[in-house]
Specification:
The chain has 14 helices and 29 strands. It is an alpha/beta fold. Among the domains are: 151 residues, Immunoglobulin-like; 178 residues, TIM Barrel, CATH 3.20.20. The strands form 6 sheets. An 8-stranded parallel beta barrel has the order 16-17-19-20-21-22-23-29, surrounded by 7 helices. Strands 4, 6, 7, 10, 11 and 13 form a 6-stranded mixed sheet that branches. The chain has a 5-stranded mixed sheet with strand order 5-9-2-1-12, with no helix packed on it. The longest helix has 23 residues.
């Protein structure tokens, strides 16, 4: 939460006039606003809003300024830096700014935002410069000339669809996996640890003025005006969570053989819980899938006359009130239940019916939003699903209808109902989506950056959630290049989804192959011949090759239990930044691709580097010891 304060009323501090571009501002038709939606100790995510307040259309633009924030990446513009001069040129598709309209650029910032920008111009003309939410500090409206600079180089807006995933570019650290996860301070200006930024902290800052110390909030080496600006922008109560979302899926069927009940969910370690899954009925309306588990199963404390029982009552009416930070979402579809999405998205009437039913369902069962998991529009998914070439466009229409209905309901109920999707990671699937529209409609986008490889293909083993591509992969070159976390995330960014809304998917499980020879690589990139049994496989499920990360206390073997058995060796791919297990004696050669604390830390570092909006993981029952759950919460849910 941001708080605005009257600086002139701070005891012992004279009124400070922050110059926000008064000279010549009245004559300017362009307003440029800098905002900081997210900030942490060591970096921030920034937004630059260019608004045309005049009567003439801007056709093509170059924004130039001096002494701006240090950036590590930029999206929606071509970026160039020469000394203290930054130039941002239009990305062609956003070259036109009509009267009264606004475009938004974004960037990942290094260190704290410093509001001392000077010489700001657009196409050589001075602009009105504004420091918006999360910034603090001062500046002027620029003046001066264009200053030159070229539009070549510096265009690292995400790499697009052919950037190859980064391969061995070395991002993420040295791979030794040692040490504790980095501390992430949500409220660095709370110098006395009181839980708020107030006069006590101000006294500490002033006493350290001119020297180094804990009050050096911007990392400049000295406590000065830059730190004071950062401090004042943070005034008020510290937020419980400022960095990102932690979205966990809870599987409805987990209440049975897995015996993972709502009371077992670590609610304090997540921000969102997605209940998986609701179905779509023949009438095109949302429907319960397992009605007994969802609303009828009895738990201690239930009474005969309550409206409903089951998992949903336990989660939303028993446990959620004890964790007011938590939001719960009803997730619709999934791999098994996506068959009717094409039909409900087809017409205005069908979309209206479905959206109306989702709002009714959400209100009836006390959810905070809706998560759509359509697997997948146009192609992919089960062969029994209905597919149409227009699914991608219709998906946008369906989500917009949901957004509109949720907003109306939220206005009536005095809350904001959230809307998210589980988005595909395969380039052959997300190419059908209107990515730029998703960011406008949705609160956030959960990208399923896992299941990129699996035992449906025996050609060779591989990583099911590699951060980067490995050039030694002998498989299809396009798959090897594009089926990586890095490539997928960069494609979504390049497609127009803003980083703060982009949520990286993490697997809390592994995918395995059987009949794999060592091949000198511990089974990596070797042919396979079978699908081995996974942690929860039985005669009903058949072999899936899916292993929980930690099945401690269940009597089953998860990946940690297999590693502890002594039959498996852990290997590390330092190019893809992921581990894998291999046993020559199990299943004729057992290869398991998975994520552990080391690989997850690399992905969390990547998340910070690009200012992403958090993580989602599938799924909460698969980490009984909560080793990964804890690491994610500590790194992303800054408290």
């Amino acid at each position: 939460m941001k708080h605005r304060i009257d600086i002139g009323r701070l005891v012992g501090i004279p009124t400070l006039a922050f110059a926000l571009g008064t000279a010549g501002a009245s004559a300017s038709d362009i307003t440029v606003t800098f905002e900081v939606p997210n900030a942490w100790n060591g970096g921030h995510t920034g937004a630059i809003l260019i608004r045309n307040t005049g009567t003439s259309t801007v056709e093509g633009w170059r924004l130039r300024y001096e002494n701006g924030p240090e950036m590590s990446s930029v999206w929606n513009a071509i970026w160039n830096v020469e000394g203290v001069v930054t130039t941002l040129d239009d990305a062609d598709w956003n070259a036109t700014i009509a009267p009264g309209s606004e475009i938004e650029l974004g960037y990942s910032g290094v260190g704290a935002f410093i509001g001392d920008i000077t010489g700001a111009t657009l196409n050589g003309a001075p602009v009105t410069l504004v420091y918006g939410d999360g910034t603090g500090g001062g500046g002027d409206d620029g003046g001066g000339d264009d200053g030159g600079g070229d539009d070549g180089g510096g265009d690292d807006d995400g790499g697009g669809d052919d950037d190859g995933g980064g391969g061995d570019d070395g991002r993420g650290g040295d791979g030794d996996g040692s040490g504790d996860p980095p501390s992430f301070d949500p409220c660095p200006a709370d110098l006395d640890g009181s839980g708020s930024v107030n006069g006590g902290d101000l006294g500490i800052l002033l006493s350290a003025w001119g020297g180094p110390g804990v009050a050096d909030l911007d990392g400049s080496g000295v406590v000065d005006g830059g730190d004071l600006g950062f401090f004042l922008a943070s005034w008020g109560e510290c937020p419980d969570v400022i960095d990102g979302r932690v979205v966990a899926y809870y599987i409805e069927w987990g209440t049975y053989g897995r015996n993972f009940q709502p009371a077992d969910i670590p609610y304090e370690k997540i921000t969102h819980l997605n209940y998986a899954f609701a179905d779509i009925g023949p009438d095109g309306r949302i429907a319960l899938f397992d009605e007994y588990a969802a609303i009828d199963k009895s738990f201690p404390g239930d009474t005969w006359d309550q409206p409903y029982r089951g998992l949903i009552n336990q989660i939303n009416n028993v446990h959620k009130p004890e964790h007011p930070h938590l939001k719960t979402m009803i997730s619709v579809g999934g791999w098994t239940l996506s068959g009717r999405f094409s039909d409900v998205a087809l017409t205005e009437a069908s979309r209206s019916t479905f959206a109306e039913s989702c709002v009714e369902f959400m209100r009836a069962y006390n959810f905070d939003g809706v998560d759509i998991d359509w697997e997948y529009p146009v192609e992919g998914g089960l062969a029994s699903n209905v597919y149409r070439p227009v699914d991608g466009v219709n998906y946008t229409f369906l989500l917009q209808e949901l957004r509109d209905r949720l907003d109306v309901a939220g206005a009536e109920d005095g809350v904001h109902y959230e809307l998210s999707i589980a988005a595909p990671a395969g380039f052959d699937k997300y190419r059908h989506l209107e990515l730029d529209r998703l960011g406008e409609i949705l609160d956030f986008v959960n990208v399923m950056t896992y299941d990129l490889r699996g035992a449906w293909d025996f050609t060779n083993t591989g990583h099911h959630s590699p951060l980067f591509s490995n050039p030694d992969d002998p498989g299809d070159p396009e798959i090897a290049e594009k089926y990586t976390v890095d490539h997928v995330i960069q494609a979504y960014l390049a497609g127009g989804v803003e980083p703060a809304k982009l949520v990286m998917g993490l697997p809390i499980y592994g995918r395995a192959w059987g009949g794999v020879a060592n091949g000198g690589t511990g089974g990596l990139f070797q042919p396979a011949s079978s699908v081995p049994a996974g942690t929860w496989d039985d005669g009903t499920s058949g072999a899936t090759g899916v292993d929980d990360f930690d099945a401690a206390g269940t009597g089953r073997d998860g990946i940690l239990q297999l590693l502890q058995s002594g039959d498996y060796t852990r290997y590390w791919d330092d190019v893809s930044k992921v581990p894998y297990l291999y046993s020559p004696s199990r299943f004729g050669g057992h290869f398991i691709s998975y994520d552990d604390q080391e690989s997850t830390q690399y992905k969390l570092d990547y998340l910070r580097e690009f200012g992403l909006g958090g993580v989602m993981y599938w799924e909460i029952t698969a980490d009984r010891g909560q080793g990964l759950v804890d690491l994610i919460a500590e790194s992303v849910m800054a408290k």
